[in-house]
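Changelog-adjacent note: as of this version, every example in the card shows the full chain rather than a window. The one below runs 379 residues end to end.
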Amino acid sequence: MVGLALFFKVERLTDSVAYAGIALGLNTFANSVTAGLRGAALDRWGQKWPIRILVPLYASGLLVLEFTTSKSLILPLSLLMGLVSPPINLSVRPLWKVAVPEISLRTAYALDTSVINATRVFGPLLASTLALSPYPRSALILCALFMAVGGLSLGFTKISSTWVPEKKSESHIAIWRLPAMRLLMLEAMFVGFGWGAFDVGIPAFATLEKIPGWSGPIFACLAITSVAGGLVAGLISRKTSALKGLLRTYSLWMIATLPLALTYPGWSMAFIALFIGFFGGAVQVFYWEVLEAVRPKGTAVSALGWIWTVDGSFMALGAALGGIIASQFSPRFTLLSTTIAVSIGLLVLTFGRKILEPANRITTEAEDRSAIENSAPPQ
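Full-length structure tokens:
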């Protein structure tokens, strides 16, 4: 909810789509550049104090952000909010191994993923509905309430406070020194930029066309089919290698984005979003399996964190530039950059597939569980 709520708050305050895109970009950038550090901190020291400290700061910051009326403060506050974003998703996934018996792990992970994906369906709808209602302040206020209740509920549970991080191997190699991880980071640069442009291009296009209420339904269509795509990918993941599955679904994902810039923020864009979401959800499943196959031992949290650092940094750049492009030129150019970025990402993975050869095999059930455990974007 935070992304759309922030976008509409800034657009309402400044009457500028470009300014709103920059604010969202700064928030995403600050969140992402610290994700790797937060993941490394959790891998080393556990979860107890990072969550208990950052959750109240973040929830309070959302309230300050909502009630500020200063245009000069809105960008620094957006940046600050990203810096103190609590590592909720990074923390929750490893806890299932402790919370439930081995036989119930897959069921637990499926439940966890279903709940998160469900919030991606209803979250954008709720955020845009509240932000565009007669009570627009309720959007960020509700975000603050949800973060406080959910984050502190996690932070004060015994299972989180006593969680023991995975031990590193004696021959541990830094993540960025592995060619496979560098390749995934290179791909993340392009896709992150494209997806940042997408995230701001949709509400920017809808706002410029005087139909901002369409933003939520379009994102909801994307989220609904991403759940289905992930489930389908999970069913076939035992029949193909993670690398082959990634390249095939990535190709279909790229094809699904081709007509994006030609659509209008209404039924046509929602229709295309269904296909982008479906194949994007499938890509996500295979991507995490590939990451699990090539990451160093002892980096269950930080490997994903550093990938998000790269991905999110360029997502921030895409959001910031996407808002400017949409405002100064056309939102269609903003959405076109998403298609171009996904196409380049596919080329990177295709030409570098030999580097990812460890993922070119059928994974074991234990590896699948570990991949699913880290299958949500960090927060």
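Structural remarks: The chain has a mean pLDDT of 82.
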